[in-house]
């Protein structure tokens, strides 16, 4: 399963239509939110997390390199890599996200190319071009039904010697209930996905929205790593992190740097993970 339309060029699958409508509606809410703080970004803030910049530096950095950001949303992180010297291209399936990214690039005076395309269609939408770096994550993979096909997309987009950097919320977190550390959901991928009908957004649960039906898939870390290995990449870094970037549970403690941690005394859990995988030269 992959791609925007079926093999015969027929109608788009329901998951794609529903998810895209939901994301398209939420872009203006996100652009206006304090969560994304666009004014500070325009004034020069870099939205990337310190661990991302450090791990990418270990892989060789982005200065002077071409970088494609899959599922770039409205482009803040994409343009942050440009501020570190990359020539950036952002890809997202939400037309409003691509429009907002182009506006943001102009406002911030940071060069960036933005292309509206579904992940599985990205290699074709980018005309078969390859890049030194593929960057993605932070709430991206849960929207993809087929992680093996995603791995092949990443490999297709990488130039020989280039690397993929993924920073993602840890799938084990999805197993737990919303207000207690009790396992209530499956860890391993459920083919039909997890459908929900939830108004609002993580930046404002009271925001008025009408496109609320979405479907997500949990992808175990082993599936993600295997997808990249099976596509011919070589794993260079794999980290699990004890912090996350949002209030996943009400008992998480927020630190001054904006990261969220389990309180001392509770058992440690991986809340995020990150990896570098390289296409052999
Ligand atoms: C949580 S956001 C990712 C946030 C992003 N890391 C950032 O820089 O802010 C998920 C993004 O994935 C996009 N998306 C979801 N499914 C997609 C798909 N199948 N193809 C392309 N983009 C997709 C959404 O439009 C949304 O912008």
How much strand content do the residues show? 15-25%
CATH superfamily: Vaccinia Virus protein VP39
* Structure annotation, total helices: 8
* Helix fraction bin: 25-40%
Q: Please report the total strand number as a whole number.
A: 12
Fill in the CATH topology.
Rossmann fold
Order of helices and strands: HHHEHEHEHEHEEEHEEEEE
- Output mean pLDDT: 96
Determine Rg (CA atoms, Å).
18 Å
Distance from first to last alpha carbon: 29 Å
Number of domains: 1
> Helix/strand/pairing class, anyone?
alpha/beta
CATH class: Alpha Beta
Give the CA-based shape. Answer: globular
Strand count, sense and barrel status of the largest sheet are: 7 strands, mixed
**Uncertain runs with pLDDT below 50, 5 residues or more?**
none
Keywords:
single chain; 281 residues; alpha/beta; Rossmann fold; 7-stranded mixed β-sheet; 3-stranded antiparallel β-sheet; 12 strands; 22% strand; binds S-adenosylmethionine
């Amino acid at each position: 399963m992959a791609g925007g339309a079926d093999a015969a060029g027929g109608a788009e699958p329901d998951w794609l239509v529903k998810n895209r409508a939901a994301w398209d509606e939420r872009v203006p809410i996100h652009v206006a939110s304090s969560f994304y703080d666009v004014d500070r970004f325009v004034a020069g803030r870099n939205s990337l997390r310190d661990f991302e910049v450090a791990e990418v530096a270990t892989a060789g950095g982005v200065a002077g390199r071409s970088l494609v950001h899959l599922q770039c949303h409205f482009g803040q992180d994409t343009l942050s890599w440009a501020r570190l010297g990359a020539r950036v291209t952002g890809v997202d399936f939400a037309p409003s996200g691509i429009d907002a990214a182009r506006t943001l690039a102009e406002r911030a005076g940071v060069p960036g190319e933005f292309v509206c395309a579904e992940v599985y269609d990205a290699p074709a939408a980018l005309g078969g071009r390859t890049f030194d770096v593929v960057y993605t994550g932070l709430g991206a993979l849960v929207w993809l039904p087929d992680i093996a096909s995603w791995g092949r997309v990443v490999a297709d987009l990488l130039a020989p010697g280039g690397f993929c950097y993924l920073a993602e919320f840890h799938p084990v977190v999805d197993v737990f209930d919303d207000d207690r550390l009790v396992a209530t959901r499956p860890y391993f991928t459920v083919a039909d996905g997890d459908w929900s009908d939830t108004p609002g957004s993580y930046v404002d649960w009271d925001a008025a929205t009408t496109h609320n039906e979405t479907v997500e898939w949990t992808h175990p870390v082993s599936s993600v790593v295997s997808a990249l290995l099976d596509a011919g990449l070589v794993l260079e870094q794999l980290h699990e992190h004890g912090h996350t970037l949002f209030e996943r549970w009400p008992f998480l403690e927020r630190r001054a740097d904006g990261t969220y941690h389990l309180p001392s005394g509770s058992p440690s859990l991986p809340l995020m993970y990150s990896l570098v995988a390289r296409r052999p030269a």
